[in-house]
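$ ./design --mode recover --in tokens.txt
reading tokens...
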């Protein structure tokens, strides 16, 4: 039998086939199915349905540092509870959103104090100022940029809302792709196909009154697509969950009379690693109607799902920030310790490395970790010694290139 496109229903030819991601690539999905969608139908669905879903889940994509196969996720604007605005980037990195331009001491003439989130922003601001003040030397000004670390004073506010028909079609399409991958012909999934083609009502509903994943791993912001076809109920059911938070049950079709079929595809989007999970979908026609009717969706359940994975975001951000601060601190110490390249490190060089390193990371330990000055200093020196040991063991006690960069 020739393959037929699940979206438009026309025959798929060799020249218009596609590798459809079961979980959208923008969410970190890897596994694909072919002979399922035309190339152009796939592109259109990707831009609209998957695009809408990715837009709704963008804060999670960025905060969890989703590993995607192609391209980085776009940055987005976020605000802290104290009203400061930042740009959230992949891996949860934060940049200043708006440049701050102040006229410095008017007595000195046209002197400006400019605060920007990046060198590129600095150039933009200077280009703007140059229109008014042609005497500005952009390169010279950029050369004397002072880099300052600032740390967040209040937590980021997350506005997470998902739902609606566009993103719903993406959920349905993903379960349909897995059903197809499990050997169920698209023709048997008339509810899903009808909904995707616009001739039938939505065939999904959010589900939060229980956990359909058996022995859910703790704190993992997992993606999971599952399907189950049962001759006793005649139902072909699907389940789509993203980041452990967005959880929907799908009814793909009725009147199934074949052998029981079950299949699960789950990943940890932070690494792309596949997870071995089991999903239970113990629903009959009546339960499915209740799910469509929002009877199994509630705010408390949504919040509990969110609370189960959010601490992992905070911890990942904390770890990433600590690693960055330590790496940069050590680079600074190594570069400025006074030893010549290829020289054996003297005891004075080593003392300098630990001293410079601890001075550099001290503000982070007091401001972000909230340590008192004494504890912070002790901690900074201990970490400095540990990092020095590690560096020495890697470069045989000689100052070659910085071994930790
Ligand atoms: Zn098509």
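writing sequence...
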């Amino acid at each position: 039998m020739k393959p037929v496109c699940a979206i438009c229903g026309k025959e798929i030819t060799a020249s218009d086939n596609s590798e459809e991601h079961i979980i959208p690539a923008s969410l970190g999905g890897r596994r694909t199915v072919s002979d399922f969608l035309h190339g152009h139908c796939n592109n259109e669905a990707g831009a609209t349905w998957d695009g809408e879903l990715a837009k709704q889940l963008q804060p999670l994509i960025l905060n969890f540092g989703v590993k995607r196969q192609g391209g980085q996720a776009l940055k987005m604007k976020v605000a802290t509870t104290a009203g400061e605005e930042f740009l959230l980037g992949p891996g949860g990195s934060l940049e200043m959103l708006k440049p701050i331009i102040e006229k410095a001491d008017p007595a000195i003439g046209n002197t400006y104090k400019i605060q920007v989130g990046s060198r590129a922003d600095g150039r933009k601001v200077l280009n703007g100022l140059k229109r008014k003040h042609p005497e500005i030397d952009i390169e010279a000004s950029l050369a004397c940029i002072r880099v300052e670390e600032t740390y967040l004073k209040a937590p980021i506010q997350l506005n997470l809302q998902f739902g609606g028909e566009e993103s719903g079609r993406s959920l349905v399409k993903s379960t349909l792709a897995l059903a197809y991958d499990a050997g169920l012909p698209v023709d048997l999934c008339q509810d899903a196909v009808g909904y995707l083609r616009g001739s039938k009502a939505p065939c999904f509903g959010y589900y939060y009154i229980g956990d359909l994943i058996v022995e859910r791993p703790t704190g993992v912001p997992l993606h999971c697509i599952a399907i189950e076809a049962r001759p006793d109920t005649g139902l072909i059911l699907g389940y789509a969950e993203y980041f452990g938070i967005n959880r929907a049950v799908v009814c793909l079709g009725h009147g199934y009379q074949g052998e029981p079929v079950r299949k699960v595809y789950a990943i940890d989007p932070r690494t792309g690693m596949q997870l071995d999970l089991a999903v239970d979908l113990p629903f009959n026609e009546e339960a499915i109607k209740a799910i469509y009717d929002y009877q199994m969706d509630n705010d408390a359940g949504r919040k509990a799902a969110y609370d189960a994975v959010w601490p992992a975001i905070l911890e990942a951000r904390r770890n990433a920030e600590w690693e960055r601060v330590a790496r940069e601190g050590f680079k600074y110490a190594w570069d400025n310790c006074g030893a010549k390249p290829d020289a054996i490190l003297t005891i004075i060089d080593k003392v300098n490395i630990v001293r410079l390193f601890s001075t550099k990371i001290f503000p982070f330990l007091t401001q972000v970790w909230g340590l008192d000055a004494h504890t912070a200093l002790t901690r900074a020196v201990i970490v400095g010694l540990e990092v020095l040991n590690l560096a020495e063991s890697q470069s045989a006690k000689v100052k070659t290139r910085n071994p930790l960069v």
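exit 0
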